[in-house]
């Protein structure tokens, strides 16, 4: 009989060595407490718009409970291609360039595994979404984390890239609008990055899951630039702007060779995304513009409020142009960001995520999600003000 220690020794070393997500650890502490105001979760507080839910129920009523094509329903892939073309000006063929995935999470995993061989380096920028580094390691690649700088508003620069590239670099993974900083890029920033990718012959993975959620200026996608469509896997999904996290729906757009490579993994691992979620997503693409506009207007009010409150308290906050996170600089209080977050939770029952959950350069910051009601945000800010007064 195996005891727990010998069972653990059988687990693949890569998996054993990767730490658990800092967010998950933190939320286990949060869930053990009552009456907490959470600014922690990166999940819309809105219910999925009713007509999208209705499309899923209708599909269920009609007995649509089968597998779909591995690539996803053609009607959905057509809708996705139209949507992406409208946003970026770039057309993709629904037949062999659009793949429906189980969330952007699966898309990221497929893209990395389709490209990365042992020892290949993947550049990505930190602070970053928590899954990037582990996904690269699961594929036996080498994650190369570029530490973006608060002085640059956590925007990735050409110089950052040049300092980290090597002859082993194969892939560049981008995420703007960014989780956790809320940073966005200008067209000029994106042009610099594209020129770098072309010069070094890199494949670009661009996670644009927050592209609908920019508040001051429109998002500009790297695929819109000359020479990028042919070297880029564009990743997007329904979780955030459509408030559909539980549907687990995402998609990739990429040249046929790359789509086929991802599809090979997808067909043996996932087979296809759930049909009810796919049916709901067809409706989401057809009729949700007004819902997105409504939610976005609400996020904008909250963004303005949370940013102004931090500034009034003397806590500098990276101006969040996009996504639904405020990244606040609490370094002057003489604690690590984890200590700050734990003490805030302990003394005022407000949960936020320590910046270090997103990489080393998140030290000194806390991430506060404003995907929660304005009333809750107001109360949380009162408590944070009370908390720092006592420090
Ligand atoms: N990419 C980023 C930047 C995210 O913030 C998230 C979720 O928080 C994901 C991907 C995963 O999204 P999905 O629900 O589509 O798997």
TrEMBL record:
Keywords: Aminotransferase, Pyridoxal phosphate, Transferase
Any single biological process term in GO: amino acid metabolic process
Pfam families: Aminotran_1_2 (PF00155)
Enzyme class, spelled out: transferase
PROSITE patterns: AA_TRANSFER_CLASS_1 (PS00105)
The Aminotransferase class I/classII large domain, residue ranges: 35-384
Keyword Transferase: yes
Cofactor list: pyridoxal 5'-phosphate
EC annotation from Swiss-Prot or TrEMBL: 2.6.1.-
SUPFAM superfamilies in UniProt: PLP-dependent transferases
Molecular function via GO: pyridoxal phosphate binding; transaminase activity
InterPro entries, per the entry: Aminotransferase_I/II_large, AspAT/PAT-like, NHTrfase_class1_PyrdxlP-BS, PyrdxlP-dep_Trfase, PyrdxlP-dep_Trfase_major, PyrdxlP-dep_Trfase_small
Family per similarity comment: Belongs to the class-I pyridoxal-phosphate-dependent aminotransferase family.
Name of this chain's protein: Aminotransferase
